[in-house]
Structure formats: C-alpha cells, structure tokens
Amino acid sequence: MSEDLSLGSTPHDPAGEFAYDVGLEDFEARVLRPSFEVPILVDFWAPWCAPCRALKPVLEKLAAEYGGRFLLARVNSDEFPQIAQHFGVRSIPTVKVIKEGRLADEFNGALPEGEVRAFIERLLPPSAASEREQAALLSAEGRFEEALALLLHALQANPGDEALRLDSAEILFELGRLDEVAQLLDGEFEQENDRARTLRARLDLAAAPVDPDQLGQLQAKIAADPDDHAARLELSAAQAAGGDYRAALESALEVVRRDRNFGEDAGRKAMLRLFEALGGNARYDDLVREYRRQLSAALN
Q: Model-level pTM greater than 0.70?
C-alpha cells in the first residue's frame, strides 16, 4: 500500500530514544522524516483501552531490543482524532508502519510478543549480525567477492561496526587487495582492538612483494648450506608475505631446531610473530596449535 501522509508539523526535541509520544505538531519531524531512515511503527492507543495497555510494553520492549532499527511513535487517538481519522483507524490498538513517508503495513489488536516480533522482522533489512553470518558461509565456500559485497553493504548501513570492518579486511586479504586492507585497518578500534592488532601484524608480513626468483635463490642457498639460518629466516619471511603460512612456520621452526640461539632467538621470534598474525582467525587455529606444539617440543 502507498499513500501520501503529510500532515504539516513543527519539530521539537524527542522525549525518548526509540519510543516516544507524538501529536499534530511534531508528526512530520518525528514520524515522516525519520521514516526515510528506518521504519516507524505508529501505535494508536487511548488511556481507557485495556488491550492498548497490554500491547504498549511489548512494543516498547522490542523498540529497545532492536536498538533503533525501527522507532515507535505513540498517538493518543482521544487527544489527536485528526491523525487517527487521517489513517483510517477504526479500532484500537492499531499499529501503522510508515516507511519513506508512506503507509507500508499495519496490524490491529494486542498481538502476542512473538507475532509482533515476526511482523517487525518482515519490515527490516537483515541485521549486520545475520549478514556477517551469510558472509562467513560464502567465504568458507571460497566465494570471496560475494562475501565482500555483502559485508560492504552492511557496513554502509553500520559504518561504526568494527566487526564488519575487520571481516571485510579478512576477505580483502584473501583477494590480495592489501591497500584496501590498510584503509580499513586505519583508525582506532575500541571493541575489536586485539583482532585489529592481529590483522595489522598480518598486513606487515604481507607488505613486502614476493619475487619468485628470490624464493628460488633462497631455496638454492639453503640446499647448498642447510645451516644458513639467515637465508632460512629470509625465506620464512618471503613465504609469509606470499600467504604460505605453513611453509613460513616450518622454515622458522627449522632454524629453532638447528640452532635455537641463532640471532638471539630469531627463529622463535619469527614464529611468535606469525602466531600473532594468524591469531583470532578460525581458519588458522589448527595450524597455530600444531606449530605451537612443535615449537614447544623443539625448545624442550
């Protein structure tokens, strides 16, 4: 359904964050205008109406729970019969949904919480959490471009969501788009600081371009002199830069096995840097556990 609902109005400061009373004066400012950002549920009620009193706490609870993904505007139909008449309200409670300035949906009566929740879910775009879950499934299937598109769409709606930024950075790593990774990791992370630090460490590992000829030369040097630990550590760094983390860990571990004190524990320190860079990513959990055990065995 679609109907022009402009009533004319004068704005004033809101009385509540997600649920508030409205009248003729502020209907445009607090219902029509914000409806272009999120759905507005307009609850028509009256003080004498027992079903209205039953529905009110349900709506307010859900408004708080959804945290601004929709707003609840309450209209006392006794005080503002003009608004009720404009919307064709014939009984109360009646809830009308306004999206983009127009009537989009409605329900009548004091529905149970589960039915109200289902009604609201049909109105809303997928939450950032559900889009993250979908993106994780796509990523696990190797569908990185699709996963990234989903995450970036969610990030547009939730620009301050740190988890979405870091999920996007993870996918960009897989796609080799390191400049974009660096952009997403720029700035402060308050809720996801540990994970951001881990991704920055991985970005540092990947910063140096990998030259296939250089890899071949390093491998040849090590074949000629297996105790060339400096070359082996250089190889480990090159393997990490190319994303071959197992090979990088194995090269660093071999230095520890052959000379644990070389370069003031350089082999062990290289492995610890790799553990930090791979930490917090379920994809590498088994690899990190495997090589932590092997490092512990080599040191004991």
A: no
